[in-house]
Sequence to fold (390 residues):
Amino acid sequence: MSKSIKEPTPVATGRILALTNHLKESLNPADDIQKAKMSAPYKFQGWMALDKDAAKGNMVWQEYEPKTWTDDDVDIKITHCGICGSDIHTLRSGWGQADYPCCVGHEITGTAVKVGKNVKQIKLGDRIGVGAQSASCLECEQCLNNEEHYCVKGMIGTYNSKYADGSKTYAHFTVKIPDGLTNAEAAPMLCGGVTVWKPLKENGAGPGKRVGIIGLGGLGHFGVLWAKALGCDEVVVISRSDAKKADAMKMGATGFIATQDKGWAKKNTRTLDLIVSTVSSPNMPIDDYFKLLRAHGQFIQVGAPEDVLPSLNILAMISKGCKMGGSLIGSPADISEMLQFAADKNISPYIQERPMSDANQAVIDMENGEARYRYVLVNEKHVKELKASL
Ligand SMILES: [Zn+2]
Ligand SMILES: [Zn+2]
Fold:
C-alpha cells in the first residue's frame, strides 16, 4: 500500500522546516543508488471499502488511483498503519455516507520514496508519517495560527475526502519521525495519540493537575501515558468495569474508577481538574462524570459519536464554574511536538502488530473491543524491501 501526499504550502512548510533539517542535497554517490532503487516504478494498492459492508471485514485489496502527482507531493512506501475508530466509522458510513471506493487508514508511517522538487522538509529515504488530515486552506485565521485542523474552510481528511481539483485524497501533511521512535510506535500516535495529546497540553495537564481519562481504549491509553509523562499529580482512569485496571496501573494511572460499582460518582466527587472523555454513547453517565470535577474543572470530549450525547444537567457545571468543550486531532506542529516528546521520554504505546494481509480480521477484532490497545498493520513486504535498499 502506498499513498500520495500533497506537501503543505509554504506556511506549513516553514513550520515543519523548523523541526527538520534536510535541505541539502547529498553528494554521496551511494545516495544516488538508493534513489534509483527507491524510485522503481510502483502501483498504488490498498484495502478498499466498496460499500458499508466493508466494516464487517469485507475490504478488498486492489489498485487505486491516487491524486495526480505534482512537485509538491511525496509518495510514502508504507510500512505500518494503525487502525483507528474513525476508520470503522467511515467504513460503515457511520458519520454520514462515505465516498466509496474508499481507502481508510490514517496512522501511516513509512519511507519517502518520491519527493517533489518543491518539497523542502522531506528528503528521499526519510522516515515519515501522516495522520488524519491531508489538507487545509493554510490561509485562514486558524491555519495561520498553527490550527490547520480547525481550518475555516474545513479540513480535508486523509481518506474519504477530495482535493479542490476533485481528485480523491489518500494523504498529506507529512511529519518526520524522530530517532528513538520506530515506525510501528509512531503510527498510532499520528491520530490516536495526538487526539488526546492536544487537549491535555492545551488545558494545562502537568504538575499540580489531577487528570481523568474516560475509556481505556486506543485513545484513552495514550491519555494515561501522556498525562503521566507530563507530570500530572493524579491520572485516574474511568472505565465501565475493573477488567483493564491492571493495565491502567501498568501504564502509569494512579487511580481507577469502575462505573459499574455503586456510588462511584459520589465516592469520587470533586477529585479531578481535567477530564478527557474518549468514549461516546447516548447512554454515557455524563452528569455523574461532571460530579468528578473540582471547581473550575474542565470536561473535554474527544470521542466523536455517530449518535448524540445524552441530555445533560448543566447545573452540575454552573454550580462549580466548570467548562465543557471538545477537541479534534492536532496540527502538524502538534504532532511533531508529541512525537519528539514520546522519543525524549521513551514512551512506547501498547500496540499489537498484525500483518497487513490480516486487515479485515483486525477491523472485526477492533470493533469487538479486542485491541490491546491499538492494532498496527505491518506491510512486511515493504519492511523487507526497504531494509534491502539500505
Ligand atoms: Zn484554513
Ligand atoms: Zn483516527
